[in-house]
Amino acid sequence: MFERPTALVTGASRGVGAAIAHALAPTHDLLLGGRDTEALAKVCAGLPDARPWPVELTAVTEADVAGIDRLDVLVHSAGVVTLGRIAETPAEVWRRTMEVNVVAVAELTRLLLPALRAAHGQVALVNSGAGQRANPAWGSYAASKFALRAFADALRLEEPDLRVTTVYPGRVDTDMQRSVREQESGTYEPERYLAPESVARAVVAAVTASPDAHVTDITVRPTAGPVR
Q1: 0.90 cut: is pTM over it?
Q2: In Å, how far are 70, 144, 145, 151, 153 from 134, measured between CA atoms?
Q3: 37-79, pLDDT tens digit by residue?
């Protein structure tokens, strides 16, 4: 009997992270990471082979990953966004955005590299269209996502036994998107956005690619027209 592969998903308590957890559940044992222990428990309750991994990602230590000796898939889905023009964005916002969206990702990956190497595993990073282009009022977020893209590219070259995939979704129907639209003073139009499950399917496509295939980058856009 072969053991099922194990996947750790951050930001798994809601939105895209929760959708990725559900999409991987048929084939993987899951560790679901996040700060909201109650929400994590609810997601795990619907997935028989899932365990909560409550953690503050900006303060993760070796103790948090103790016992994870082999990891087949690491999915980084947690993130934050605060909009504002550069002239109005204080250093605190830049630091917090970089800390959550880049530094925490780099540190958790570093701590889990031995387990990933043992499994010849895969790292999937949920980036953003903002990681491919920068727009007004999106400076700090776009900078963090450009940095996340660079991190993924460097990791891919430094760790040739791992597969590293960056997924660039457009706008997704999530609580984060509601916050974004409030910050933009715009109407929330879910029919114009991607479903979280659509992003999850892109991640699963990369994770389940045949062994001879290394899916490095996936861009997913909504079929609806541009957000007004």
Answers
A1: yes
A2: 37, 11, 10, 18, 19
A3: 999 999 999 898 999 999 999 999 999 999 999 999 999 999 9
pLDDT in tens, 153-199: 999 999 999 999 999 999 999 999 999 999 999 999 999 999 999 99
Q: Which pairs from 104-107 meet CB under 8 Å and 24+ separation?
A: 104/57, 104/58, 104/60, 104/78, 105/76, 105/148, 105/151, 106/151, 107/60
Three-state DSSP class for residue 10: coil
Round to whole Å and give the CA distance between 66 and 220: 35
Q: How far is CA 11 from CA 37, 151, 176, 183, 217, in A?
A: 11, 19, 11, 21, 20
Backbone torsions φ then ψ of 156, nearest 5 degrees: -60, -40
Q: How far is CA 129 from CA 60, 98, 136, in A?
A: 27, 17, 14
Q: Which of 100, 186, 106 is nearest to 140 (CA)?
A: 100
Q: For the purposes of burial, counting CB atoms within 10 Å of the CB of 37, is it exposed (0-12), middle (13-18) or buried (19 or more)?
A: exposed
